[in-house]
Amino acid sequence: MDPKFSLQDVLRCHLCENPMPKMFCDICQLNICDPCVGAHLVDESKNHKLVPFRKRIYKPRCQKHSFEQCELHCEQCDIPLCVQCVSSKEHKHHKKVNVLINFENQKEVLQINLQELEKTIYPKYQEIASTVIKQKADLDKNSKKMKRRLDKQEKDWHREIDDIVKILKANVNGLEYNARNALEKQEVEIQHKMAEIQQSIMDIKKLLEYNDINAVSAYKSRNDEFKRLPHKILFSLPSIYPYKIEKEPIYKHFQTFSPLIIRAKGMFSMDSPCVKPTPTIKPFMNEPQIVSYIRTGSAPCVVCCLNDEEIWMSNSLIENIINLNNIDGDLVKSIQTKSGSPPSDITVTTSGDLVYTDSWDRTVNIVRDTHIETVIRLQGWIPCCLCCTSSNDILTVMNSEGGEQSKVVRYSGFREKQSIQYDDKGQPLYSTSFGGFYIAENINEDICVTNRKEVVVVNKVGKLRFRYTGSQSKAANGGFYPRGITTDSHGRILIADCDNHCIHIIDQDGQFLRYIDNCKFDCPIGLCIDSEDNLFVAENHITGNQEVKEIQYYMTKQSS
Hints:
The chain is an alpha+beta fold. The protein is 26% helix and 29% strand. It is built from 7 helices and 30 strands. Strand 14 (363-368) and strand 15 form a beta hairpin.
């Protein structure tokens, strides 16, 4: 075995065969131990380049002449060449470069490839993988939501069909009752006539038996009377035939249940790696739709989404209970206020904790699981409504105890951080309005407050941006009485107009966009929006409307 080229033998110095040489001559392609360095450099017939053994560069062996080292590289053929190959006709007119220069060039290419893989391509695949994971999560969430809605629809259909069957059975019972009464009345009359006929028969037989001339002469026949038979009572119960449910209109109603089409739409682009695309603004539906009715068992006037599946709600006028219902209407949890008084308003922190204001004892309280903790207690001020911001601050609207002043206070960690009360001219921003305030933060951090007959919007530092007093068309009919307020993912502001029984939608600069006025609202009061821009509306707690409407007002891929 040749120790110079064997892979099986331990590495040795090519001059003295000592094991584990520490140096390597790139020019001669020889392993050199420390004692042999001087002897190797003595040979001045050619240049030498000694490098640490770990940094050695082995010149490749020729593919045709296995014992020859390659000094050049053929660029056309992209193979290393030994001296014999260089002189051959095959490579005579080909461009050749030093094999080490080609090696360095290839290392530069490798560095570029490595950098591109690490900095661009792999992060892009990570981004794509994250997108696919999110799509799977969205698919799971949306399919579960669809199944729950179908389950709810199934229950509603069963309930409606049960109601229809009960009504039909009641009608049958009514028909049966009336017919039975008529038959029983006739039966009594017939029995009475039969008794009279039997009596007549007995009387005639006596007359015939005793031959009493006076009695026979006095006899008056009733046969003509008895021959007038009773009227026939005819009745017919409605026939019940098998009713085949027409499936096609039902399928047509649920247009989303078309065959699933999976198609590749373009390709992921490398032009802008790891940059999220700007979200497109969803178009409004021509006619907003009621997606579902959430039966609550109470009449809520304040609502707040905990997530896409559950909603906190309460009647802030008469009930000291705050209920958590799922979108099917099932009660998940109930919380009784600490003071026993109705909560003025409710909100949810970014971590999912319920927060409510209690105007009766001037407090703001947080609910963690079932434990209630008072985190703010006011002196001289009465908290009204509140909301949680994107930074997890709490914005609270409050009135002075005398009713002369109103302001918005920002709490960070339940410590007062900001007070918003006056405009640049020193004039009050808000009119005193006991029970008339609702508040929401927009995506641009504007603070939106409904206040008597207007909506007041200030920026995050408290500078007035605009006041919205309703659109002229509705104002001409019955004024503008804003109550609940919320914002969606596009920064649109939605305002409940109780007197006009509709929802106003304006942009973040106060420009009117449209109404939602086709959903048969009865004094809408409480509003909230989930992460998919589904709107939940609580209405007319005075008449005891025990349901919350879920409204879809943006086009979706299915509806478009």
